Amino acid sequence: MRVFGGFISGWKPLTLLSAAQLASMRDTAAQALPGTAVIQTSAWVSDGGGAGTTTLTASGTVACRVSPGAGVAGVGERVIGARIDPDTDVSFTFEYGTAVNTDSVIEYEGRLFSVKDVSEPRSWAVTCQADAKEIT
Questions:
Q1: Residue 130 and residue 105: Cα distance in Å, rounded?
Q2: Predicted pLDDT of residue 95
Q3: pLDDT value at position 82?
Q4: Which residues have CB under 8 Å from 82's CB, separation 6+?
Q5: CA 17 → CA 27, 29, 113, 124, 126, distances in Å?
Q6: What pLDDT is recorded for position 73?
Q7: What global pTM score does this model have?
């Protein structure tokens, strides 16, 4: 390889992942999700008199992996907006395209978790991440 005027002869630009390669990576990641979670959607139901209740409806069962969130098991504390965020207990990893948002409640091994943050959907993402706090 020789350098000419700042360019390297024989250099080729990096190519982006093809759709098939990205799909293969997503399939591989999905196989590495050993747990199962139920994603529940909350809805407010009026009682007709000005009040109401919030109900949870199961919207899907999905494969997942759960890891300690920031501030748990000595991992460290997560900082958001220059302050320590005590609200993240665990981080869920789901298959790409899983419908989960900050209004969702996740049921995992009989425990309920309120979703605090969801990774932005990106066309090149391999998985979907959601940070959650256990509801006690």
A1: 11
A2: 95
A3: 76
A4: none
A5: 15, 16, 35, 8, 12
A6: 45
A7: 0.74
